[in-house]
Amino acid sequence: MINNILRLYFIMGSMNTKQNDPIEVLELALQGGITCFQFREKGVASKQGQEKFLFAEKCMKLCRTYKVPFIVNDDVDLALALNADGVHIGQDDEIASQVREKIGKDKILGVSVHNEEEAFLAQKAGADYVGVGPVYATSSKEDARTPAGTKVMEQVAFQYPYLPIVGIGGLTKENLAPVFKAGGAGVALISAIASAENPQHQAKQLRAKIDRILERESPLSEHP
């Protein structure tokens, strides 16, 4: 089920772990309980060409070992070459319907949206989930928009109750609860894990908190 995959969604590229080996960070995050990984190799000094391919391949092999979906940000050709589990695109990337055609119906397609109209178009194009944000201010993405809180998420969740939503932007262990209360299925984090002193411990704590929140929010947890 896609909602379970989105619970603790880790996004990372080599630019996000300058002090540590990104492969080591990813493995520790996987050991800590992340439920999905998005390979996002962007930035001025990011890896290119064959170097990028080999780096992505190592990341994907790790994800396969831990049975965690491996999603490629934006680069559809790379995703197809690797036979990745899916692709995530933004509003300035390729058109979602064209990406769906390229990757086929069996791979995961995620689309970043910032309002109800974009969510409608993403759903129509065959998106399996949408990323809504930035929820809070973030320094992890140079092209990040103005923080919107959880208002847009609430609107999208109300209009499209069967469209899974993942919140992104400035999320930490302390401020992720509102995302789930607004109708989110999960949270996507970069620096909260990538910059942690102990990524495994951090991911484990995040996962435990998310599981507790979802247990409280579930109708099955209500007792008469």
Features of this protein?
alpha/beta; 8-stranded parallel barrel; 10 helices; 42% helix; disordered C terminus
What does this structure look like?
By secondary structure, the chain is α/β, with parallel strands linked by helices. The chain contains ten helices and eight strands. The protein has helices at residues 2-6, 22-32, 49-65, 76-82, 96-103, 116-124, 151-159, 177-181, 191-194, 199-217; strands at residues 8-12, 36-39, 70-73, 86-89, 108-113, 129-132, 165-168, 186-189. An eight-stranded parallel β-barrel has the order 1-2-3-4-5-6-7-8, surrounded by seven helices. Strand 7 (165-168), helix 8 and strand 8 form a beta-alpha-beta unit. Helix 2 (22-32) packs parallel to helix 3 and helix 2 (22-32) runs parallel beside helix 10. It is globular, with a radius of gyration of 16 Å.
